[in-house]
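Researcher: Going back to the complex we discussed earlier. I've cleaned up the inputs and rechecked each line, so this should be the final set. Can you rerun the prediction on the complete assembly and write out the structure?
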Amino acid sequence: MALCEYEISPWKKDFPILNSTFINKNPLVYLDSAASAQKPEYVLNTCRKNYETEYANVHRGIHHLSEEETANFEAARIKVQNFIKAKSPKEIIFTRGATESLNLAANTLGKKILKEGDEVIISLMEHHANIVPWQLLQDEKNITIKVIPVNDDGSLDYDAFVNLLSPKTKLVAVTHMSNVLGTINPVKEITAKAHEAGAIVLLDGSQSVTHFPIDVTDIGCDFFAFSGHKLYAPTGIGVLYGREEVLEDLPPWQGGGDMIKSVTMEKSVWADIPARFEAGTPSIVQAIGLGAAIDYLNSIGMENIHAFEQNVFNFMYDEVKKIPGVRILGNAPHKGGLVSMVMENAHPQDISMILNQMGIAVRVGHHCAQPITERMGVTSSCRASLGLYNGRKDVEALVAGLWKVKEML
Ligand code: PLP
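Model: Rerun complete. Updated structure for the full complex:
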């Protein structure tokens, strides 16, 4: 049995909403960070101060505020670069979120490299954001999407993946960590194998980036996508990392200001990367907020966050598993961050409604990943997911709540 050393997370105090919000007179127990994380005071203050004292549009002005804000915005890019260990800030494209990052990849990389008869490999445990953009291309380009199956324990069927690779495989696009199962995939091995077959590799890092250190250079992937709002930053900001040599060759997706060097009525000349992919006014303060979130996480250390969270996760996994009639979806050896569950004789919707009455916030449904939910034999589940602010007390509240649900239903 896992012991949890930490009753209350040492970082909970940094998050105003967690220390002030009550539901039915119960303190908030927030277990929905896989959907979106709460924001630390440091991020909130940075955004507020920016709007109050430094705000202007970026890149196009020579007045003082615009120059200062451009420097702030570009400094955030360098923070992201260092956070995921990219080689150059040119490899960091700011988007509105992971969904936009993946659509950007499909509409630039996908359109450039894929032709009729080519194959794209994705996995059965993808979020819809890493399924639908490729399906849209499938219809347009007459390509084939091949799907890596998932074992009963929720791990990726690696041998099946290797068998799917062929000279026709142009792209492998898989998630680093499942938002339903919590499974952490062997992305370094996947990348190496895919590269051997001559394919480009794109990873959806939306869940992994929040839980452990990321080194895109060490992984060797060509693309890595994530959202800021799951990483304790504001909504409306995301990242697409792309390897410089690959990005240099890609055409833009959206057209508009900032992504061009020159425009005449006859033709336009594209800007260098990453501006080529950032048409229009970007999410300026949100990007600066993402930089602040990264400063905050670095002040703790992602290794420390990972060790802390894994301890809380092991405790949650063991305690939930003990409840008779509860089934956890997925028990792969490499797993963390969240537990999705179903309970005999209780609809997930009812479970989460009862938990909500007790101040416990969990998510219910297919979590925008219908294929893997169905593979696990259900149509919906109840998901409790951790952030760095959750400690043993939060898990104890959840477990007590689940026992109560069991008694009631
Ligand atoms: N990919 C995964 C694995 C996710 O968990 C999510 C969000 O839940 C997304 C992509 C999409 O992120 P967003 O809605 O922030 O664009």
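Model: Worth noting: The mean pLDDT is 96.
Researcher: Good, that matches what I expected from the previous run.
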